[in-house]
Amino acid sequence: MRKGNLFVISGPSGAGKGTLVKRLLERIPDAWVSVSATTRAPRPGEIDGVHYYFMNDQHFDDLIAAHGFLEWADVHGKRYGTLKRTVLERMQAGQQVILEIDVQGAFQVRKLIPEAILVFIEPPSLEELRRRLEGRGTEDADAIARRMKTAEAELALKHEYNKQLVNDDLDAATEELVAFVNECANE
Ligand code: 5GP
Fold it and tell me: Would you say the CB of residue 12 lies under 6 angstroms from ligand 1?
């Protein structure tokens, strides 16, 4: 069987990655999104094993020591990592595997798996990004300021990605992403 592609999707928090990935999964039957491990606390409504595998620092350290991660990074003071085994298994099974991870993780993955396809999701502008983050109401002013700073640093790296996609209109952005993934899958 042909090995599946590995897509790495990054972009500033508030750019709409989560929504786009959800829509992509509805449209592409053999796409599978990896569930990461994290040391951050669950937000209201988040389910262990669905949104993340929530764990303490000791458990995360044990996984690092056991070489359980494809990549991991510190993002906004908490650790996040991609579990290696399931990702490799799904690729072997021919699925289109999607990682929704930050820029540090994306470049680690590219080093290990050079054929990984990196997609950067951009907000229409930094002003719009701030508006979305404020509208979400899940972060306080400090956290928003921190996320805006990270966003600027991430945007500076977008040209390192294989594809850039501006999430201005959600329907149009979904179509563009679905078309891109299908194109790569058929190559
Ligand atoms: P949040 O806490 O808002 O769910 O995620 C914060 C950031 O962590 C997002 O940019 C998200 O893409 C990134 N992230 C989530 N999982 C992983 C992972 O497994 N590895 C890395 N490097 N970043 C991740």
Answer: no
Of the candidates 126, 127, 107, which has an alpha carbon nearest to the alpha carbon of residue 118? 107
Each as own residue / partner, the long-range contacts of residues 140-145 (CB below 8 Å, 24 or more positions apart, any chain) are: 143/76
Task: Give the pair of three-digit tokens for residue 42.
Answer: 């669950």
pLDDT tens figures, 59-118? 999 999 999 999 999 998 899 999 999 999 999 999 999 999 999 999 999 999 999 999
At a CB cut-off of 8 Å and minimum separation 6, what does 181 contact?
A: 5, 7, 24, 28, 31, 96
Choose one of 20, 33, 80 to mutate for the ligand 1 pocket test, by most ligand atoms within 8 angstroms of C-beta. 80
Q: Is the CB of 167 under 6 A from ligand 1?
A: no
pTM exceeds 0.90: yes
Ligand 1 centre to CA of 102 (Å) is 5
Under 8 Å between Cβ of 23 and 7: no
